[in-house]
Amino acid sequence: MRLAEGADRVLRTLDTAAMAVSALSIVAMTALVSLEVILRATLGASTLIASEFAGYLLVSTVYLGLAWTFRCGGFIRVEVVHGALKGTLLRLVNVVIAAIATATLLVYSYYLVRFVSQNMATGVTSIYVSRTPLWIPQLAMPLGAGLLTLTMAAHTVRSAALLLGFAAAEDKAAHFAAEQAAGPL
């Protein structure tokens, strides 16, 4: 159990670090767009990169915030069926849904890695004046999706342990409280 706790602590740290970068991306995007507006309004000039880099920062904001958002219960869950289930059946459904989500995220992450790798290998650049190698801003996509996949896999393991009775009493109480507050998906 200590290995699982240590791995979860590392994953939480990575999720939090990614969220910090996500938040910094919002700050940078705001600063960049503000600079563009000020330059255009006062000097009639442009950075020529504001819209391009704001788009890259938006991608970073979304993808790097996914794992932390999931862990904190920020994902939307459909309550129609889930609300009608109780006890073991609810825990079983949670494990099945989490396992399907993990498998789907594994495939998605794989294709994102292939996409970014292909752009790196072929040297694809943006069409804008900056000629940014596209793999650089795209790197946030497989990193964020990969973190979400690991976080979902950890959730699947925790849900399975709860279903099979391997979770300690305090883990069960914490899981139940979190499930009632935000739900697994």
UniProtKB/TrEMBL annotation:
Q: Kindly give the membrane topology term recorded for this protein.
A: Multi-pass membrane protein
Domain of life, per UniProt, equals Bacteria
Give the main location. Answer: membrane
Mark the transmembrane ranges.
Answer: 21-41, 53-71, 92-113, 133-154
User: Subcellular localization, per the record?
Assistant: Cell inner membrane
> Know the name of this protein?
TRAP transporter small permease protein
Gene Ontology BP, a term: C4-dicarboxylate transport
Q: Tell me the ranges covered by the Tripartite ATP-independent periplasmic transporters DctQ component domain, including all copies.
A: 29-160
Name the protein family.
Belongs to the TRAP transporter small permease family.
Q: Which UniProt keywords apply?
A: Cell inner membrane, Cell membrane, Membrane, Transmembrane, Transmembrane helix, Transport
- What is its biological role? Part of the tripartite ATP-independent periplasmic (TRAP) transport system.
Q: Which residues form the signal peptide?
A: none
Q: Which Pfam families does the record cross-reference, listed alphabetically?
A: DctQ
One GO cellular component assignment for this chain's record is:
plasma membrane
Q: Which GO terms describe its molecular function?
A: transmembrane transporter activity
Q: How does it assemble?
A: The complex comprises the extracytoplasmic solute receptor protein and the two transmembrane proteins.
Q: Does the keyword Protease apply?
A: no
